[in-house]
Amino acid sequence: MTETVTVKTEGTTLSALLARHYRKVFAGMVAQTYALNQDLSSARPFLPVGRVVTVMTPAEMQAEGAAARPVVDLFA
Length: 76
Prior knowledge:
Blueprint: E1 2-6, H1 14-22, E2 24-26, H2 29-36, E3 52-56, H3 58-63, E4 68-70
Antiparallel strand pairs: 1-3, 2-4
């Protein structure tokens, strides 16, 4: 199962987008997302605002066996 996430701020990297979306960090989440979005590899380090990215659902990430770690926010 997949869902989509839209980039809303400038200077967003793929790993930052995924960490914000999942509110956790899964092992292999960036690689899984690149596999779902073959055209992302041609993007620069920062994703353009408005870019729609297909991602796996959190349940699917866990079903794949990816261990989740909480995201530490130093500015919250």
